[in-house]
Write a structure and sequence with these properties.
This protein is globular. A hairpin with an 8-residue loop joins β2 and β3. It is built from eleven helices and four strands, in the order ααααβαββαβααααα. α4 crosses α10 and α6 packs parallel to α7. The protein has two domains: 40 residues; 199 residues, Nucleotidyltransferase, domain 5 (2-Layer Sandwich), CATH 3.30.420. It has a four-stranded mixed sheet. With 288 residues, it is α+β, with helices and mostly antiparallel strands. This is DDE_3 domain-containing protein.
Amino acid sequence: SPPGRKPNARLITKVTNILDKNPSTSVRTGSHALKTSKSNFHRIKSKVLKRRSFVKVTIPEINEKQAATGKKNIKKLYEKVNNRKMVIVMDDETYVPMDPKNVPGKEFYSATSRTAIPFNLRARTKKKYVGKFMIWQAIDEIGNITKPFVTDKSMNWEFYLHYLKKFLLPFIKKHQTDTPMLFWPDMATCHYQKDVKKFLKENKINFVDKIENAPCVPHLRPIEKFWALCKAEYKKEVSPSTSVKEMEKTWTKISKRVANKSGQALFDGLRGKLRLTAREGVYAVLSK
């Protein structure tokens, strides 16, 4: 129906049915299926049915056993940190391209029309194989961070043990005062190698053991968001870091800036999320 004219009830019902059956139906697909214009379908969807579009939440794929284990272990974790008034410390490693231009993310340009500027200014190149650095770092609930460890190698337990000795242990000794800290690593195999666990126990570092850890809960680990913020800042860098030492210097500057601005805020509400997960399951936080 033309703009200004009320769409017929039959078409409204058809649009409602198709969206109820599949909420992901696009305007193009829906209008084609109902043999109506895209503008008409969109008008009914937005003006009559008051439906808006939202971005789907990405969730890890887990089975029922993992979901049950996650819920049970998050409950134990929540009770532990809540009852003993502990501060959570978590670590992680991530891979960052040497060239900031290769950091994933949307890029935009302004012009009077899509083709009004040269093509080389409208496109970006993507190399098939790009050099990357692996970066390890830890952060606590207060927003304190360790120095980053940067390498062009892959993670293994020897590297991991080195990080813990050189960076994590001094960090905990510095920031753990009257309030005990709980170290919460992810479930990577090298994080629980026997020599790693021996080091943690010998140095009296409270940590979440693998059998007590929760699988596939990145949404409960604010360090994931910390990485995203740091990478967004690195993407703004003009020139690439061509050596480990250069990247270490750049990432130290960036991670400090992000931690000072957002470190503590990233952990706001974490206790509530842990409590909700303990009560309703591993996807409860994402479904709200």
